[in-house]
Amino acid sequence: MATLIQCHRLTHSLGNKALFKSLDIAINEGDKIGLVGHNGSGKSTLLGILSQALEADEGEISLNRGLQLEVVEQFINPRLFDHTLAQALTDKLPEEGKDFNQYRVEQLLAELGFGPNEYNYLVSDLSGGQQNRLMFARAVINNPNLILFDEPTNHLDLTTLLYFEKFLQQLDAGFLLISHDRQFLDSVTHRTVFLRDERIYSFNLPYTQAKNHLDAQDEAASARLKSEEKAIKSLAASAKRLANWGKVYDNEKFATRAKSMEKRVEKMEENKTFVSKGSRLNLDLELQVARADRMLHIENQEILSPGEDPVPLFHIEEFFIRPGDRIALLGHNGVGKTTLIKLIMNQYANDKSGDFIKFNPQTDIGYYDQEINDLDGTMNLMETLRARSHRGSEADYNTALINAGFPYKDMTKKVAVLSGGEKARLMFLIIKINQPNFLVLDEPTNHIDIQGRQQLEQQILTTRATLLVTSHDRRFIDHIADRYVLIQNKQLIEINSPETFYQTDSSPSMESIHTKVDRQTEPVSVNDEDSILERIIELETLIAEDHARKSKFQKPKLQSNWHTELAHLNALLTTEPE
Which of 26, 74, 194, 388 could cross-link 201 (Cys pair, CB 3.0–4.6 Å)? Predict the structure, then answer.
């Protein structure tokens, strides 16, 4: 198996912060790698160095001559906003043969679930999920053998996430991707690279198995360190005792032995087993427990879209939340999940005693907004806590910020310059200080790493929180929720398991996605009769195979594309050369 990228002793810093030192990593043909690390550990920087968008401070990178590399960023390039969907994909084709290979653009867009009426949509008008599918299409259309993905699952709706999961499972090209979604990593990768402590730990295993091995290594390292420190302490005590004896009895032999032992202590200190420092993140919650029958109750209400001309989104026959309920609100993007949450919060802030939503007088809500728009960017950390918290003193806020991973020197830093992960920590810190008895969390995992997600899960479970949450992180939902409500067919219904929703998800069919897009490797040359004949045979085979399927599994749009291309190729064969 060929090595596509070989890195040797890479070292890089961001300002005064060292991200990694003397890092070695190799990426081989066909590798399916998950790159995992705490927020700020340097994952995106390493990806930039691998793609040669950034240059390491020290070290070497060797690239295979046959490397065909593509990079998929977290967000689509703004220069494509004024392109149509079809133009943005055509833009990736080589200039030579671009017009002739237009059928490849339409074919791939169809396979990605786009209808012909959407081909002329401006990229700026596409939804986030559609833009992500476009980025995937741009990455694969020229059949690369390695793709780098920077957090491709962030901000994806479940439909696109499940599609992307199937897409990568069937992709022939190798890839390295950054993700904090444990279920996704387990589904698509077979190798996991942890970036932490300025070094890497690599396992030829998907995430969960790799994490178990890493935890076992950490436990063994901690045990070794404890034993080593005990031996060092004992030897240092003996050296000190001998040195004292040498002075008391004026015995040079004792003094010499004491110095020798001290040198051994120094060497043992230098060679102590390394134990991971872990993440700076310390995410914890302190919540009150409500003594009430119901926290809120909604009965026989139509939920309308926001705006000047609202339209009905869905109907609620009856929905109630009891103390201790942990409810996951499920549904595809656009059905009204966030609308319901914002409606609850608006009613809570302005009309608690109204009839539309009935709140128990004891209800005290702590709210996490998925866009973190609830924070004032002009305030610094300390000002934010003063404005948003109604418990504690100035000293308490100082201590709380330090315990949450914010150093003292950062307390005057403006909220606007914080990273997404830092803003998330600040939001949860406000919740902790205020000690509500009911949490409303809208996509709380978007900006926190895997350790943060696990800490949040543990805190929710141990505090017996009352919870209403939306999240696209399936493992997070599976771990914390004990009730599931689904918005479907314009109704809010309760279901027994989230699998009911996952299994009926209307993600694009993958039957027509081959390991290489439509099994093509090179554009067909208009002057190569053999290539044209080979492609005609291939198209006829595809059409026959599709016709052989049951009608409900056939792909009429693809059949139409194939027939169009077939007619074009047949015309080329029958055209007399000039």
Answer: 194
For residues 382-420, one letter each, b for 16 or more C-beta atoms within 10 angstroms of the residue's C-beta and e for the rest, the string is: bebbeebbeebeeeebbebbeebbbeeeebeeebeebee
Q: Report the C-alpha gap between 405 and 281 in whole angstroms.
A: 6
Q: Is 543 helix (H, G, I), strand (E, B) or coil?
A: helix
Q: Mean pLDDT score of the chain, rounded to an integer? A: 82
Cα distance between residue 144 and residue 174, in whole Å? 9
**How many CB atoms lie under 10 A from the CB of residue 256?**
12
Residue 206 has pLDDT above 90, yes or no: yes
CB contact at 8 A, 104 and 93: yes
Task: Say how far apart CA 348 and CA 451 lie, in whole Å.
Answer: 32
Tell me, what's the pLDDT at 100? Answer: 65
For residue 22, is it left (φ>0), alpha (ψ between -120 and 50) or beta? left
Cβ neighbours for 93, distance < 8 A, ≥ 6 positions apart: 101, 104, 105, 141, 142, 523
Nearest CA among 479, 182, 181 for reference residue 328: 479
Length of the chain: 578
β-strand partners of 358: 297
The pLDDT, as a whole number, for residue 283 is 56
**Dist. CA 447–CA 186, nearest whole Å:** 20
Helical pair 529-548 and 556-574, crossing angle rounded to 10 deg = 150
Do residues 181 and 473 make contact, with C-beta atoms less than 8 angstroms apart?
yes
* The dihedral sign for the CA sequence 185, 186, 188, 189: positive
DSSP codes, 116-127: GGGTTSBGGGS-
Whether residue 274 contacts residue 221, with contact meaning beta carbons closer than 8 Å, is answered with yes
Short-list 442, 433, 519, CA closest to 170 = 519
Query: Which of 142-156, 331-345, 541-555 has the weakest average pLDDT?
Result: 541-555
User: Average pLDDT for residues 332-342, to the nearest whole number?
Assistant: 85
pLDDT score for 520: 40
375 contacts 384 by C-beta, under 8 angstroms: yes
Q: Identify the sign of the CA torsion 340, 344, 345, 346.
A: positive
pLDDT at 32 over 70: yes
44 backbone dihedrals φ, ψ, rounded to 5° = -65, -35
Greater confidence (232 vs 282) lies with: 232
* Measured distance CA(105)–CA(100) in Å, rounded: 11
d(CA 153, CA 189): 14
Residue type, 294: R
The Cα–Cα gap between 436 and 106 comes to 52
Over residues 463-512, the pLDDT tens digits come to 778 899 998 888 899 888 999 999 988 999 999 888 888 876 544 443 33
Rounded Cα distance between 434 and 432, Å, is 6
The conformation of residue 380, written as its DSSP 8-state character, comes to B
Strand (E) positions, 64-170? 69-72, 146-150
Strand (E) or helix (H) holding 60: strand 58-63
pLDDT digits (tens, 9 = 90+) for 180-189: 889 899 999 9
